[in-house]
Amino acid sequence: MSASSGRPETQNLVEIIDRILDKGLVIDVWARVSVVGIEILTVEARVVVASVDTFLHYAKNISALEMASQSGELEDLQNLEFGTSPLVQPAAQRPDPQIEDERRDDVEAAEAEQ
Question: Which residue intervals of the chain are DSSP H helices?
Answer without folding.
Answer: 3-23, 52-71, 97-113
